Automatic annotation (TrEMBL):
It catalyses: tRNA(Trp) + L-tryptophan + ATP = L-tryptophyl-tRNA(Trp) + AMP + diphosphate + H(+). The keyword Cytoplasm applies. It comes from Phormidesmis priestleyi. Its EC number is 6.1.1.2. InterPro entries: aa-tRNA-synth_Ic, Rossmann-like_a/b/a_fold, Trp-tRNA-ligase, Trp-tRNA-ligase_bac-type, Trp-tRNA_synthetase. This is Tryptophan--tRNA ligase. Homodimer. Catalyzes the attachment of tryptophan to tRNA(Trp). Pfam families: tRNA-synt_1b. Keywords: Aminoacyl-tRNA synthetase, ATP-binding, Cytoplasm, Ligase, Nucleotide-binding, Protein biosynthesis. It comes from the Bacteria.
Length: 335
């Protein structure tokens, strides 16, 4: 039997941090053994906000190298660049024409990002989730592993697929497969080092709030040393009064590959002065092999180019027939 297919991507804006690794990429690496994985760099999404043309391509390579360095195997998984496949933009256009504007006006992420952009909100920013729906539906995946914050975009994706099926398909023969979100309940949600109630994010203006995957050991150690804590002794998970404590223990648990119970027992009598050096050491050691592999990949552009060219071919073999199917259902002339 064919393996179930999953698809996911990361926007190529800014550097990859611990939250991207523990919250997303590591999960894909686990899924990789028994799923057919399509993983891409969302560079079309990166230009929905003002961007620097000098770093756009480099960010794409950096993320591709990060995927592989973290354990995505380019021989079994398909790694590709969104802008390399015109199918994404083309299907997004068709979806634009069947998506009611008020569905997009409701999107929480749009409203938040638009607030930050002031007068400079592009049509593309509002259209972001429609492009995301195209990204997903082109591959007819069984599941889409994403964080909690993408839940609304996945619901929209399902709504767009259902609407297309309803308007242009027949009940017994839907045009597009409606995918399931794969949002892990116990999933790692890595929070900011300066505020345990906010997600670790590349858009946080403070560098101190996140650990970048390429941070040198001394930088990692310093960031952890300065991370926000509380005055209590004895460390614990799940105390709503102690979000930073929960977050730092969670990072330690994941990076040391232990169970939550084991970490809870190990740390219950510790103070921060004892825990922070332990966490710093664990983080540095866990990231060391990833960093080494990343550096090697970044200095071998020919190899990366080859992986992405290969990925494009494999992705297009799935995406192109899906787009054709939709165009036929819509009624375009076939020459
Ligand atoms: N919006 C996603 C994010 O910010 C990135 C993304 C774009 C994506 N297209 C996608 C994720 C398709 C999953 C599937 O993380």
């Amino acid at each position: 039997m064919a393996k179930p297919r999953i698809l996911s991507g990361i926007q190529t804006t800014g550097d990859m941090h611990l939250g991207n690794y523990l919250g997303a990429i590591r999960n894909w690496v686990e899924l990789q053994s028994d799923h057919e994985c399509f993983l891409f760099m969302a560079d079309l999404h990166a230009i929905t906000v003002p961007h620097d043309p000098k770093t756009l391509a480099e960010n794409t390579f950096k993320i591709a190298a990060t995927y592989i360095a973290c354990g995505i195997d380019p021989d079994t998984s398909t790694i590709f660049v969104q802008s390399q496949l015109p199918e994404h933009s083309e299907l997004a256009w068709i979806f634009n024409c069947i998506t009611p504007l008020n569905w997009l006006e409701r999107m929480i992420q749009f409203k938040e990002k638009a607030l930050k952009q002031g007068d400079n909100v592009s049509v593309g920013l509002m259209d972001y989730p429609v492009l995301q729906a195209a990204d997903i539906l082109l591959y007819e995946p069984d599941g889409v592993p994403v964080g909690e914050d993408q839940k609304q975009h996945l619901e929209l994706t399902r709504d767009i697929a259902a609407r297309l099926n309803f308007q242009f398909g027949s009940e017994d023969k839907p045009i597009l497969k409606v995918p399931e979100p794969l949002i892990r309940k116990d999933g790692a949600r890595i929070m900011s080092l300066t505020d345990g109630t906010k997600k670790m994010s590349k858009s946080d203006p403070s560098d101190q709030s996140r650990i970048d995957l390429t941070d040198a050991p001394a930088v990692i150690t310093k960031k952890i040393k300065r991370a926000k804590t509380d005055p209590l002794r004895g460390l614990e998970f799940d105390n709503p009064e102690r979000p930073e404590c929960h977050n730092l223990l969670g990072i330690y648990q994941l990076l040391s590959n232990q169970t939550k119970a084991a970490v809870a027992a190990e740390c219950q009598d510790m103070g921060w002065g004892q825990f922070k050096p332990l966490l710093a050491e664990t983080t540095v050691e866990a990231l060391r092999p990833i960093q080494e592999k990343y550096q090697a990949l970044m200095s071998d552009r020919t190899y990366l180019q080859q992986v992405l060219a290969n990925g494009k071919t494999k992705a297009q073999a799935i995406a192109a027939p899906t787009l054709d199917k939709v165009k036929a259902a819509i009624g375009f002339a076939r020459l």
